[in-house]
Amino acid sequence: MSDIKKTIARELLQIKAIKLSPANPFTWASGWKSPIYCDNRKILSYPKTRDIVKNAFADKIKELYGIPDVIAGVATGAIAHGVLVAELLKIPFVYVRSSSKQHGLTNQIEGELKSGQKVVVIEDLVSTGGSSLKAVEALQKADARVLGMLAIFSYGFDVAEENFIKANCKLDTLTDYFTLIEMAAERDYIQPEEIKTLQVWRKKPENWT
Question: Is 102 a residue whose pLDDT tops 70?
């Protein structure tokens, strides 16, 4: 387990971008009950955490892909993070809407994107991967060469892994569910008996109560 994964997991817990509540579960928009809630938009309000995430994204991109032609952020949660990374790397930025606008130019991709350009997609959170991969599909339809996607955090659902494999899209994350649970236990954000609840939920979140 890398130090940066641990560092980011600790930061997310400290600023309460990720909240753990096995005894009083959250309800997601999908209707799923969950002992964990992630809101990575909170990172933007904390300069230290924001810089750690920005630099980790840039380092990971350079390690995996070199310097791409364009950074693409998935709307809306990853727009700001994508801009910060693009600025650090001194390369262009675009963002991808969930669907085309219903007025004006009816764009789904906002910004200047040329055919054949190499793109790395930035996402704040991956759950099942459905909305993230819609952005990848839109970029590919615009003749971009999508090198892969980087997200701040993923729940590590099997369905997400399957969806990314089917889409032939590489996914990497700055930290992950397993690292987060380890850091939460180490820092007493959760009790030892709650770890099992969190592990069981991740295996079948759609059926968990």
Answer: no
Map out the domains of the chain as residue ranges. Answer: 3-207
- Give dist(CA 193, CA 3) in Å, integer: 26
> 155 pLDDT band (50/70/90 cuts)?
very high
Give yes or no for a cis peptide into 76 (omega within 30° of 0). yes
Q: Is the pLDDT of residue 165 over 90?
A: yes
Q: What are phi and psi of 171, to 5 degrees?
A: -120, 130
Which of 19, 3, 1, 4 is closest to 184 using CA atoms?
Answer: 19
Residue 125 burial (10 A CB sphere; 0-12, 13-18, 19+): buried
- 120 membership: H or E segment, kind and range: strand 118-126
d(CA 148, CA 169): 6
- Average pLDDT of the chain, as a whole number: 93
Burial class (CB in 10 A: 0-12, 13-18, 19+), 143: exposed
Contacts 24+ apart (CB under 8 A), 190-198: 190/20, 190/22, 194/20, 194/22, 194/23, 194/35, 197/22, 197/35, 198/20, 198/22, 198/35, 198/36
Query: What CATH code would you report for 3-207?
Result: 3.40.50.2020
43-58 confidence digits (pLDDT tens): 999 999 999 999 999 9
**DSSP structure class, residue 171:** E
